[in-house]
């Protein structure tokens, strides 16, 4: 490419600086989780594992973590089903209102979370009479998670083409067998990538959760927000934050390998 | 072989498969049924119900909903100077955040897509994606610590702090679509522009920017929408400033006035719908 040396250098600088800005606050959080000073005095007077122990023993954290995992799994399963179905319909068929379907799927993340949150809670509360709880959280999360699965599967279907499925049908396999033996194995990694993103989206969500969770349901983000302004909980909040940062690396790496590791994309 | 058995002696499963194979419309309706029921009926229905509520009111004594039509909420919204200021301020914050993210994200995405080696690319994408998984609250909190008057930056809390924090929070949402868009852009086009005599800036203006515009718009949908609806970051670093989200939240919680909250919530929805309608033709929605 015909970029001047200065242009190249400044683009690289922008990238490195940008990543620096992204990571410095996260680094501070991780470092502070070992800070022996309760109020995060800077520079840290000493390092300790005491807060990690406290967080490990905290039942509030454990319960919230478990609730978050349940909500994330529930939402992911629903999003996988709905997203895959919609992606097949939009990619494999031509029909009236096809563009509207894509718009509809994008809408829950395109609209501000607070709108989705109060719309759903109002419907549960005053229209359907469903008590708010874990179930309503899952419904709320699934609504905005569909899009991640949809996009991944759509992209995969576009790339897959129809040849292999047609070959399978020519060899005598019926619709179900072709799906089981040909279509599904080819989509598996896209499903896993979409599902991981859906889980991540659900795991970190707080706004829709605030409105759709009943009084007793506390996901990890809700727990963090409740304890964020309590000075004596600050070290434990910080440990939870640091743990989330560290743990998040694994699924992201997997999702990336699965969706981007395909030689066809290059 | 199950397949040959299904061919020679069609059982119920085989007949169903054959039926589905012959009737594309039935397959399509089955595929669309659940997603449309969920998003078309339930979700749009919920939005519609909320919109209807905006024309109701609450009884000032009992706090119960009064289900009779009134324009009062929208009148309050339009005539109240406070609300107009807050709406404009929210819009301003969303625009500022989107622009800042665009200016920061574009060079980063370009370096990732066009300068880095394929191996480095994968690591860079992971580097940008990972912070998305770190809790939103934690990041806002980290900025609270840095912005506090004795913190590293020491700007104090307020609107500037809110804009900075929101820009930070949504930056990856802008980088990733632009990166994906630029990665799809064949490098040969850039070489061709160079061979035809275009310098860097001209190549950017006439080739790179027009072709990556849908991706930019896709990113801006995230940054814009996420900023418009936010009320939590404002609570953490915004000091006394309020955005639309806070007005909605306060009216649901403390004021227990769902109809007015619903009326206020239509403001970001209308802004987003206008925005989505305007950008639909660019193909941005396929880039999300």
Would you mind describing this structure in some detail?
Chain A: It is a multi-pass membrane protein. Chain A: Its main location: membrane. Chain A: It comes from Microtetraspora glauca. Chain A: Keywords: Cell membrane, Membrane, Transmembrane, Transmembrane helix, Transport. Chain A: It holds the Pfam family BPD_transp_1. Chain A is mainly α and 266 residues long. Chain A has one domain: MetI-like fold, CATH 1.10.3720.10. In chain A, 77% of the residues lie in helices and 0% in strands. In chain A, helix 2 packs across helix 11 and helix 4 crosses helix 6. The C terminus of chain A is likely disordered. Chain B is mainly α. Chain B folds into 2 domains: 47 residues, no CATH class; 207 residues, MetI-like (MetI-like fold, Orthogonal Bundle). Helix content of chain B is 77%, strand content 1%. A two-stranded antiparallel ribbon of chain B has the order 1-2. In chain B, helix 8 crosses helix 10 and helix 9 runs antiparallel to helix 10. The longest helix of chain B is centred in the middle third of the chain and has 35 residues. Chain B is globular and about 75 Å long. Classes of the chains: A mainly alpha (266), B mainly alpha (288). Chains A and B meet through helix 1, helix 3, helix 4, helix 5 and helix 6 of A and helix 1, helix 2, helix 3, helix 5 and helix 6 of B.
């Amino acid at each position: 490419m015909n970029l001047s040396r200065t242009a190249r250098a400044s683009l690289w600088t922008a990238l490195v600086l940008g990543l620096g800005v992204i990571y410095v606050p996260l680094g501070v959080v991780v470092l502070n989780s070992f800070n022996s000073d309760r109020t995060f005095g800077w520079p840290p007077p000493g390092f300790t594992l005491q807060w990690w122990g406290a967080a490990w023993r905290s039942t509030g954290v454990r319960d919230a973590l478990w609730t978050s995992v349940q909500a994330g799994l529930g939402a992911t399963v629903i999003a996988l089903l709905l997203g895959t179905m919609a992606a097949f319909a939009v990619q494999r068929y031509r029909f009236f209102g096809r563009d509207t379907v894509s718009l509809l799927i994008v809408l829950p993340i395109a609209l501000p979370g607070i709108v989705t949150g109060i719309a759903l809670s109002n419907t549960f509360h005053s229209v359907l009479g469903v008590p708010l709880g874990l179930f309503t959280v899952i419904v709320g999360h699934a609504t905005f998670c569909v899009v991640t699965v949809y996009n991944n599967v759509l992209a995969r279907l576009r790339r897959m083409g129809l040849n292999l499925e047609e070959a399978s049908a020519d060899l005598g396999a019926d619709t179900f067998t072709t799906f089981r033996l040909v279509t599904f194995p080819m989509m598996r990694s896209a499903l896993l990538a979409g599902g991981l993103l859906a889980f991540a989206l659900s795991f970190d969500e707080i706004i829709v959760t605030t409105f759709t969770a009943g009084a007793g349901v506390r996901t990890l983000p809700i727990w963090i927000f409740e304890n964020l302004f309590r000075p004596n909980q600050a070290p434990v909040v910080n440990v939870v934050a640091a743990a989330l940062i560290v743990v998040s690396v694994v699924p992201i790496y997997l999702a990336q390998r699965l969706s981007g590791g395909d030689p066809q994309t290059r | 072989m199950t397949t040959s058995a299904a061919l020679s002696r069609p059982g119920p499963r085989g007949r169903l498969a054959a039926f589905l194979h012959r009737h594309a419309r039935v397959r399509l309706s089955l595929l669309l049924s659940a997603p449309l029921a969920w998003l078309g009926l339930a979700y749009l229905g919920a939005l519609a119900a909320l919109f209807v509520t905006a024309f109701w009111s609450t009884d000032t004594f009992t706090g119960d909903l009064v289900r009779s039509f009134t324009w009062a909420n929208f009148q309050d919204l339009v005539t109240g100077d406070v609300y107009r200021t807050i709406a404009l301020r929210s819009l301003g914050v969303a625009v500022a955040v989107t622009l800042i993210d665009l200016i920061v994200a574009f060079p980063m995405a370009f370096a990732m897509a066009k300068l880095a080696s394929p191996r480095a690319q994968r690591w860079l994408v992971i580097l940008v994606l990972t912070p998305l998984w770190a809790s939103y609250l934690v990041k806002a909190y980290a900025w609270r610590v840095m912005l506090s008057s004795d913190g590293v930056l020491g700007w104090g809390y307020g609107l500037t702090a809110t804009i900075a924090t929101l820009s930070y929070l949504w930056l990856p949402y802008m980088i990733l679509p632009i990166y994906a868009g630029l990665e799809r852009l064949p490098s040969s086009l850039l070489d061709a522009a160079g061979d035809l005599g275009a310098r860097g800036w001209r190549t950017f203006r006439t080739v790179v920017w027009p072709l990556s515009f849908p991706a930019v718009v896709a990113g801006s949908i995230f940054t814009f929408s996420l900023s418009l609806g936010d009320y939590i970051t404002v609570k953490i670093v915004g000091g006394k400033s309020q955005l639309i989200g806070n007005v909605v939240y306060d009216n649901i919680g403390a004021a227990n006035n769902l109809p007015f909250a619903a009326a206020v919530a239509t403001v970001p929805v209308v802004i987003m719908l206008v925005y989505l309608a305007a950008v639909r033709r660019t193909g941005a929605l396929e880039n999300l």
